[in-house]
Design brief:
The complex is a heterotrimer of chains A (286), B (243) and C (321). By secondary structure, chain A is mainly alpha-helical. Chain A has helices spanning 2-33, 40-58, 62-88, 93-115, 140-162, 164-174, 176-181, 186-208, 218-233, 238-258, 264-278, and strands at 130-133, 136-139. Classes of the chains: A mainly alpha (286), B alpha/beta (243), C mainly alpha (321).
């Protein structure tokens, strides 16, 4: 029984790391420009499809798609920022909320149109199989994806703290006006943050495509969960998103294990609502 | 507890984590008085202000308003009881006109739309904003916005009005006008507590002054005494200056 | 906003008369259906407005109330033979109570935070209904066919009675929301929208007034849900509890002009026929082109005309002066 529990914990951790990566991109965008990218989950979906098509048409293994997915999603983020998001920055709050909804609806349905709603899968990726530690099974693609997620998160963390651009982003996140006064080009910071946030979810998508079903609707649930993670960790807090992602991954897996798996997402959302009641600013938010 | 006491503050202590913002602060405000609370920046004036008006819960101590213990009351209840306040960073309702802003205040006491409107107009005449009653809130100058905030507070028919740095950012002329308004309010039977940095206003308006430094009340008295008090001078100017 | 000029009143009367005359002039089930859907979403948009337009509580979870209304009256009808009109009221009350229950923990949430919480809440409701045998789980419920009558809230030979019922519901909701916002409620909600601190300082219990707004909004939205059940005669979670319904409600209000009473009506009259007709022309292959167009429309409105049509009209009106 307790071995099963450990197995579930391990699984939760694995998915949690991936969740963290997805959420970090989202929280960065939020922290810098107060925009929730409702299309975040759909960006993930797009990245997964890019990886899938690169595999199906050119035989490129998902591991090697990572740079391409990252680059393409970076560009997508830039474009969406330049032509849509930047226009709503000065508008009413409702418009800011809704504009990325429009993007989400468009992308999700375009995917249905182009690729049908059917579930797809990368049949023979390079990384398959499981490692066994006693009775604990560790899926290799999941493990690699998780490890990769942690590395990327760490890289982002370092980039933000150590590099000049990164510091500019952090400064804007903390206090936009002060950053402006310090000579930070906040518009460029916005664009960069949106692009980086999107590219992070691009990496996550490439990882996920190694072992997860690929279909237009996959963005929906991941998207909503990532919002909960961001809110739980505290909007704008990278560390918060990281920790919250792991927490949610574990809660989801354990919740599905102890209760009905059909309710696992309901449990995640309920936990989010409880947290928001007790601590509205999230775990590490300000 | 005397009958003329409007507000009694007893031993208020407020902590934020390890930081003690207010420590054992006590004083009384009599009905019809204008009391100023002064002190250097970071002394804890705003914290005290928020404790009294119900925006913070003090960790220790009690607050009595007209004999009633309001220490644990929520902010809106305290307002209903008759304590109104303004904010350090002036807040008015953005998508409403001046008149509608004040109506939001007068709605506390009546539900009838006509009464609410008439009372609001009366207040605007009193505070001198009647001509601007159809202007949108955000379109006013800072001085007028502050006057609007006062009008909104007056709408709730307070017995005690607390002003948080109402004089900040005003030109000399606007200052005179605000001070005249405050006197007028007191003449109408409202007790006032003002937190202030602008000494001219403190000296001219106050009946009594309470001085806060580093969370503690260091002295209390009439303006003339306060200004000569060595502890007060030390608090503001440091050790090198004497009376 | 409280004062109506004679010209405005005349305009509303004319429009109302035209709407009443519509089914007598335009025959055909599809146009009538489109109008019914327009009324329904207009009603939900007006109900949403109380929350999102006036109090900055951007709810993206109205589908939950819609579904609770629909399911409550249907279950009461199917299992206990309760008249749908009574079921309507019960559903509304249940939705209002649910709204209050979720409103309390979310008391301090505004803007984006509230939006996400509302989505999480609605998803919980959807997932629960999807797995709950008592309400038919994913298979859904088919309403029993009652003899056609107003008392039974069911008609089979024609859609026209549904048209008038829904129109009456819409007029009722407009009146209720207008009454609330033109009196103290409207002032207090706008104060709350500005700042919770300011509201507190003016003696407003923002917690209480937010709950009032949620409860009224939930009740009205649930009414629309019961109507839907009685009209379509079938419900399942995928048709009444899904996020796209909630989003459609927000869009209707936003396109027309959030924060105005009639805004959502204008938004609905544009969006709903667009949605219904494009679905018929383009969507039947299941390709979702109609939704893609929807997405584009949303992107354009938000980015380039966020005040909606009402904003556009008032701007034109100002320039004309």
């Amino acid at each position: 029984m307790s071995e099963q529990l450990i197995q579930q914990l391990v699984n939760g951790l694995l998915i949690g790391f991936l969740y963290s990566l997805i959420a970090i991109g989202l929280t960065m965008i939020w922290g810098v420009m107060n925009i929730i990218n409702f299309a975040h989950g759909d960006f993930l979906m797009l990245s997964m499809f890019i990886s899938f098509w690169l595999y199906t048409l050119y035989g490129l293994d998902p591991i090697f798609s990572i740079p391409i997915c990252t680059g393409l999603l970076f560009l997508l983020g830039l474009l969406i920022y330049k032509y849509l998001v930047s226009k709503v920055m000065t508008g009413p709050a409702l418009a800011q909320l809704v504009v990325t909804f429009g993007v989400s609806i468009f992308i999700a349905n375009a995917a249905v149109l182009l690729w049908t709603p059917d579930f797809k899968m990368i049949e023979k990726p390079l990384l398959t199989g499981t490692w066994s530690f006693g009775t604990i099974q560790l899926s290799i693609p999941k493990a690699v994806a998780s490890a990769g997620s942690v590395l990327v998160s760490l890289a982002l963390f370092l980039f933000l703290r150590k590099s000049k651009t990164g510091k500019a982003i952090l400064a804007t996140e903390m206090n936009r006006n002060s950053a402006l006064l310090m000579g930070v080009n906040t518009d460029r910071v916005n664009a960069l943050s949106f692009a980086i946030g999107s590219s992070l979810v691009g990496i996550a998508g490439a990882f996920l495509s190694m072992y997860y079903y690929i279909y237009p609707g996959v963005g929906g649930t991941f998207g909503l969960i990532s919002f909960c993670i961001v809110a739980l960790g505290g909007f704008g807090s990278i560390e918060g998103a990281f920790i919250a992602g792991i927490l949610i991954g574990i809660v989801q897996t354990l919740g599905g294990y102890f209760f009905d798996p059909a309710y696992k997402y309901a449990i995640v959302f309920a936990m989010y609502l409880v947290t928001v009641w007790i601590r509205p600013q999230g775990l590490l938010g300000w | 507890m005397s009958d003329a006491a409007c507000l009694e503050v007893q031993g208020i202590t407020k902590r934020f984590g390890g930081l003690i913002a207010n420590e054992d602060v006590s004083f009384t405000v009599n009905q019809g008085e204008i009391l100023s609370i002064i002190g250097p920046n970071g002394a804890g004036k705003s914290t005290l202000f928020n404790c009294i008006t119900g925006f913070y819960r003090p960790n220790a101590g009690r607050i009595f308003f007209r004999g009633k213990d309001i220490t644990q009351h929520s902010a809106h209840k305290i307002c209903k009881l008759g304590v109104a306040r303004t904010f350090q960073v002036v807040q008015v309702i953005s998508d409403m006109t001046v008149l509608e802003n004040v109506m939001t205040g007068t709605y506390l006491r009546t539900y009838n739309r006509r009464d609410v409107r008439e009372k609001a107009e009366e207040i605007l005449r009193f505070t001198g904003l009647y001509e601007k009653r159809d202007t949108l809130g955000p379109d006013l100058t800072i001085a007028d916005k502050k006057r609007l905030e006062v009008s909104m507070a007056l709408g709730t028919q307070p017995t005690l009005l607390m002003l948080d740095e109402a004089m900040a950012g005003l030109t000399p002329v606007e200052l005179r006008e605000m001070m005249a308004l405050i006197r007028k309010i007191r003449e109408n039977g409202v007790t006032l507590i003002i937190v202030e940095h602008v000494m001219e206003a403190v000296m001219e308006l106050s009946d009594r002054v309470v001085v806060i430094n580093s969370g503690r009340k260091i002295v209390e008295g009439v303006p003339a005494e306060i200004v000569r008090n060595p502890e007060v001078i030390q608090a503001y100017l440091g050790d090198r200056y004497h009376a | 906003m409280g004062k109506f000029t004679p010209r405005q009143i005349a305009l509303y009367v004319v429009v109302l008369v035209a709407l009443i005359a519509f089914p007598l002039v335009v025959k055909g089930t599809f146009p009538t259906h489109v109008m019914i859907m327009f009324f329904m979403f207009a009603m939900m948009g007006v109900a949403w407005n109380l929350l999102g337009g006036y109090a900055a509580m951007f709810s993206f979870g109205q589908a939950a109330f819609f579904g609770i209304g629909a399911y409550t009256s249907t279950i009461l009808l199917m299992n206990y033979h309760v008249n749908p009109w009574i079921g309507l009221v019960v559903g509304g009350i249940l939705a209002a109570l649910t709204g209050a229950a979720i409103g309390i923990p979310c008391s301090n949430l505004r803007g984006h935070y509230f939006a996400i919480a509302s989505i999480a809440f609605a998803e919980i409701v959807r997932i629960c209904f999807n797995n709950w045998k008592f309400v038919g789980a994913a298979e859904g419920l088919s309403l029993p066919l009652l003899p056609e009558s107003l008392g039974n809230f069911m008609f089979h030979s024609t859609k026209v009675p549904y048209y008038y019922i829904m129109l009456a519901f819409l007029v009722l909701s407009i009146f209720i929301c207008w009454y609330i916002t033109v009196n103290r409620g409207g002032f207090y909600l706008r104060a709350i929208k500005e700042s919770h601190e300011l509201a507190k300082g003016m003696g407003i219990s923002f917690v209480r007034y937010r709950l009032y707004a949620i409860m009224v909004s939930a009740f009205l939205t649930a009414m629309a849900g019961t109507f839907y059940a009685q009209y379509i005669l079938y419900l399942d979670p995928e048709s009444v509890l899904i996020l796209p319904i909630s989003v459609q409600v927000v869009l209707v209000a936003m396109l027309g002009g959030a924060g105005t009473i009639m805004g959502p009506v204008i938004g609905a009259v544009i969006l709903i026929p667009l949605s219904e007709y494009t679905r018929v022309w383009l969507g039947t292959k299941g390709t979702g082109v109609d939704m893609m167009l929807y997405g584009v429309l949303i992107m354009l409105i938000s980015a380039y005309q966020p005040k909606g049509v009402w904003g556009l009209l008032t701007a034109i009106g100002k320039r004309a002066k």
